[in-house]
From TrEMBL:
Source species, domain of life: Bacteria
InterPro entries, per database record: ATP_synth_csu_bac/chlpt, ATP_synth_F0_csu, ATP_synth_F0_csu_DDCD_BS, ATP_synth_F0_csu_sf, ATPase_proteolipid_c-like_dom, F/V-ATP_Csub_sf
Record flagged with keyword Cell membrane: yes
PANTHER family on file: ATP SYNTHASE LIPID-BINDING PROTEIN, MITOCHONDRIAL, ATPASE PROTEIN 9
Residue intervals of the V-ATPase proteolipid subunit C-like domain: 16-76
The protein, known as: ATP synthase subunit c
Gene: atpE
Keywords of the record: ATP synthesis, Cell membrane, CF(0), Hydrogen ion transport, Ion transport, Lipid-binding, Membrane, Transmembrane, Transmembrane helix, Transport
Chief site of localization: membrane
Membrane topology: Multi-pass membrane protein
CDD domains, per the entry: ATP-synt_Fo_c
Length: 78
């Protein structure tokens, strides 16, 4: 086994672990967005519909980070 084979094997593992770490950020972000929406509805129930729309927009932007992470993993040789 030469150094090139070992390097290729390690690179593949790093890409997989890298995407796993990249998915942690959006997961925490979605949790914060949903939690703050629930908190806002509890404080002002009359704004529930408006806050829910904003929550879905926030989740969409946050999940875009996960899509960027998986695209990056494929670009750099997942």
């Amino acid at each position: 086994m030469d150094a090139t084979t070992v390097l290729a094997d390690i690179t593949g593992s790093i890409a997989t672990v890298g995407y796993g770490l990249a998915a942690i950020g959006p997961a925490i972000g979605v949790g914060i967005v949903v939690g703050k929406t629930i908190e806002g509805v509890a404080r002002q129930p009359e704004l529930a519909g408006r806050l829910q729309v904003l929550m879905w927009i926030g989740i969409a932007f946050t999940e875009a980070l996960a899509f960027i992470g998986i695209a990056t993993a494929f670009i750099f040789g997942f």
